[in-house]
Amino acid sequence: MYAFAFQRPKSLADAVTAIGAEEDGKLLGGGQTLLPTLKQRLAQPSALIDLSAVPELKGITEAAGGLTIGAFTRHAEVAHSATVARVIPALASLAEGIGDRQVRNMGTLGGSIANSDPAADYPSAVVGLKATVKTDRRDIAGDDFFTGMFETALEPGEVIVSVHFPKPDKAAYAKFRNPASRYAVVGVFVAVFGSEVRVAVTGAGPSVFRLPSFEAALAGNFSAAALDGLTVDADGLNADLHASAEYRAHLVGVMAKRAVTAAG
Amino acid sequence: MANTVTLTVNGKTVTREVEERTLLVHFLRETLGLTGTHVGCDTSQCGACVVHVDGRSVKSCTTLAVQVDGASVTTIEGLAAADGTLHPMQAAFREHHGLQCGFCTPGMVMSAVDLVRENPTPSEKDVREGLEGNICRCTGYHNIVKAVLTGAEAMRSGSDAKIAAE
């Protein structure tokens, strides 16, 4: 790693001030992506602002007909929360499938979505559940938050405070995971809100995206069979040594069906 | 620039100056001389570096020492009793030959103790899933899983592993 300065602010206001004062500072969540990146010298921030001691960023609360989860809430806390299991069980199960046990003990919700890895799990829940990302200065709709591969709507120095997930009538996440990294080769989050069905896909493209054709078919008939015959265009999807674009396109259909079946 | 960190490591309070970029695993091995915690892949995959921070298993090669300032850290050296009596999980690994070359063993044992703390009665599937963050390149997984199941039973009974009878 290149050298950097380190700060651990004790309040949200201090964190916002600290990151604003840095030429090229990075906010540190659990560090499970950022630290490996630094170890490979792929980035050279002037400072890391560790958010672990900021109380405003922590906790899981039932609010406004859903869940508000602090940005510095670790994956293991979401996975094991009785509140999450009761209100949005699909979210607990998604968190339990992130990385491995040790990654879940460190990694945070805010860190995951701020990084916007194309194969991360949480972005599919943020978009699928119509979540709202609350920052130190504004609310950002989940649909507008992820803007590309490792790109988000966040401005320089903007700090994610929490994410509000509305409670769906039902929801499920199905993931075809890379057996080594446990990242999603393809992951599909399906959620039902009244007559509206949302289908959010991660792992397949440069960033999370919705599938309007799947959503329309499921709104008329919420069953795996409703997706028979629907295909996904492989053009523009990710291709790497783990899966070709065509294979990912196929997996989107398979995972969507599994998610619909799991949602019941 | 140096930072001062104070940690409780295996029950003892230590205060040292560290560089911001010092990884916890290097702090443990090089500053404190606790070389039982290993660096395997150095890319957060293999789990040879697993230690407990405030009771939770983490990869110490993917944690900065300054990040855990004030925390309580347990390494493989801190598991056995003061008189040298092995922790039940260590005893179970020995009895079941849950190791071949032994390089991954400290991380395997630390992960196993953490998973049994959370789930005292794991099934074989729970153990295999719970050890997903640990890689054994000798591929000796079957005996590792047997050892963890026995170790879990011994931890439940609160006594030494009752494995001699098998």
Automatic annotation (TrEMBL), chain A:
Keyword set, alphabetical order = FAD, Flavoprotein, Oxidoreductase
For this protein, the record's InterPro entries field holds:
CO_DH_flav_C, CO_DH_flav_C_dom_sf, Diverse_Substr_Oxidored, FAD-bd_PCMH, FAD-bd_PCMH-like_sf, FAD-bd_PCMH_sub1, FAD-bd_PCMH_sub2, Mopterin_DH_FAD-bd
Q: Where is the FAD-binding PCMH-type domain?
A: 1-170
**Is Flavoprotein one of the keywords UniProt gives this record?**
yes
What PANTHER family does the record point to?
A: XANTHINE DEHYDROGENASE SUBUNIT C-RELATED
Name under which the protein is recorded = Xanthine dehydrogenase family protein subunit M
**Species of origin:** Azospirillum oleiclasticum
Q: What is the lineage of its organism?
A: Bacteria, Pseudomonadati, Pseudomonadota, Alphaproteobacteria, Rhodospirillales
From TrEMBL, chain B:
Coiled coil region boundaries: none
Q: What is the name of the protein in this document?
A: (2Fe-2S)-binding protein
Keywords, A to Z?
2Fe-2S, Iron, Iron-sulfur, Metal-binding, Oxidoreductase
InterPro entries associated with the record? 2Fe-2S-bd, 2Fe-2S-bd_dom_sf, 2Fe-2S_ferredoxin-like_sf, 2Fe-2S_ferredoxin-type, Beta-grasp_dom_sf, Diverse_Oxidoreductases
Q: Does the keyword Metal-binding apply?
A: yes
Its organism's taxonomic lineage begins at: Bacteria, Pseudomonadati, Pseudomonadota, Alphaproteobacteria, Rhodospirillales
Residue ranges annotated for the 2Fe-2S ferredoxin-type domain, each copy included: 3-79
- Mind telling me which residue stretches traverse the membrane in this protein? none
PROSITE patterns to which the protein is assigned, alphabetical: 2FE2S_FER_2
Q: Which organism is it from?
A: Azospirillum oleiclasticum
Pfam families to which the protein is assigned, alphabetical? Fer2, Fer2_2
